[in-house]
Each structure stands twice: as C-alpha cells, then as structure tokens.
Amino acid sequence: MIRISTSSNPIYKISISGSEKHLEQIKELIHFISTQHGLEDMEADLVELAIGEACHNAFRHGVSSNRLSCVDLKVSIDEKAIKAVIKNRGEAFEFDDIEQFNINQDFMAYKNGGLGIPLIKALMDEVNFERKPDNINEITLIKYIKKKKKEENSEMRIKETIKGDVTLLTLSGKMMNGPESIHLHPYIKELIEKSQIKIVVDMGKVKWFASTGLGALLASYTSLCNAGGDLRIARPTRKIYSVLMTTQLVKVFKSFDTVDEAIESYETG
After folding, report:
1. d(CA 5, CA 100)
2. What is the distance between the alpha carbons of residues 40 and 108, in angstroms, rounded to a whole number?
3. What percent of the chain has pLDDT over 90?
4. Residue 95 has pLDDT above 80, yes or no
5. Distances 157 to 153, 164, 175 between C-alpha atoms, Å
6. Cα separation, 221 vs 228, whole angstroms
7. Where are the domains of the chain?
8. Phi, psi of 197 (to 5 degrees)
9. Which has the closest alpha carbon to 247: 221, 216, 211, 219?
10. CA distance 254 to 44
11. For residues 184 and 177, is the Cβ–Cβ distance under 8 A?
C-alpha cells in the first residue's frame, strides 16, 4: 500500500508498506516530480534510479517480523536541490559494505535493484547514512539542480564511423552534469531504430566525466541490451576507468585499450 501526502513547500511524504511491488510506481512519481522542478530527463532518470535502489535496499535490510515492512520516503525540492530521505526499521549494517555487483549475474538482472551504494553515490551529489534510535536506518540522497549554462567548447561531440557491422562513436569534449551529456542516449536510440546495435564508444578524447555521463552510458547500454546488442568502451581515460572501477561498472562494460581491439571483440564474442 502507498500513502502520499504533500505540502506547499513542496514536500512529498510517501509511505510504502507491504512489499517492493509498488516501487515502480514510486520511481515513476519521482521522475515526474524531478522533471516538474527543473531537472532534465536524464538527470531525473538518475534520481529515479538512485532513490528506487535506496528503497529496494531498505526493504531488503528491513527487520523480519509478522508485521508488514514499511519504508518512509520524504522528498523535498527547492530551486537548488532535490533531497530524498528514506527511513525504515531494520538491522544495523555497515554503510560502505552493502553488496555490490555480482559478477556472475547479468546487468539486466539489476534493473529493479541490487546496484549497491557505490552506484548510488555516483548518481547523486551527496549520500549520507545515519543509524537512529529504535533500530531506524536513515539514508539521505541529494541531487543539486544545475542552472543551464552555455559554454564554448564544453559541449560533448559525437562522430559516427561505420566499421563493417560495428558502429564506432568517437566522443570528445566533456560528459559533465549538463544537457550536453544527455545527447548520447537519444543518439543510441536512433541507431537502434536503424538496426545498428553493435556499438563501440571511443572515450579517448573525453576530457571530463561526471555522474550524468555515467547515467548516459548506463541508459544507452540498457537500451542496446534490450534490443539484443551491446555497448563496448574503447580507450577509457584513467579518470573514466577509475569511475568504472569505483562503481563496479567495470564488470558490466567491456573495455579495451584500443579502438581496433574493441571492434574485433565483436567477432570473437
């Protein structure tokens, strides 16, 4: 069961009881709230994914009893940020030791949960955890609303090259927390419509990389997997590879030192 109350601030208070079956509805609501208060669609996707995962963890780590599990979610928004506070009564656990990606499972199995705290931290600007009295676990997620800025030479650029049945996308510029990083996913969707589903993304010329860039890669990868394709990364910079290692996404994306190796990998499997 879901109970929702609102105020004029705006603050949304949501109580989810029973099971996780209502999480998809909550995620849709979070996406709607986020876009209505100034977040771009891709940024809203990141907030939806992170809050949904945090709620999933809350149910997973809740106290087992005859009572129905209950997770309380409070979302507050102003012109600067969207803030979500998730509370539940549960067992104590080490915040940084929550299970991460299982290398033996496919990424798509994590669509509705299991991504772990490292990825939540990568998607949100701030993530804090507190153990409260009466066995209450409280996690706070914050995403800052960026004002749109146009800077010369900051926009991410995409160059497309066809290599047999593989499409090479050479990225250059910055994949930061702005609309320039959002372009990748719609571009991938257009390729899928043209049955171009074997993709190599050359990231050797990407100067900066932030959470929106990570979200664009994840969204693109998911769309390609759903279409029976794949996305493989060539020439990740040291910073990009570090982000992939920290979030455990190095176990999801196949990455290669050269473009040729990435293209040839489609022939070898």
Report:
1. 33
2. 24
3. 24
4. no
5. 9, 22, 10
6. 11
7. 2-144, 157-268
8. -120, 0
9. 211
10. 26
11. no
Which tokens is 136 given? Answer: 């209450």
User: What number does CATH give the domain 157-268?
Assistant: 3.30.750.24
Who's near 36: CB < 8 A, 6+ residues apart? Answer: none
| Tokens encoding 161 | 């090259």
**Token pair for 21:** 């079956």
Residues 212-217, mean pLDDT to the nearest whole number: 78
Please answer whether residues 138 and 130 qualify as being in contact, where contact means their C-beta atoms are separated by less than 8 angstroms.
yes
On average, the pLDDT of the chain sits at 77
pLDDT in tens, 13-71: 777 765 666 677 778 888 888 887 777 777 788 888 888 888 877 777 665 443 445 78
Residue reference for tokens 């709620």: 55
Q: What CATH number was assigned to the domain covering residues 2-144?
A: 3.30.565.10
CB atoms within 10 A of CB 164: 9
- 172-197: pLDDT as tens digits: 877 654 554 557 888 999 999 999 99
Q: How many CB atoms lie within 10 A of CB 231?
A: 23
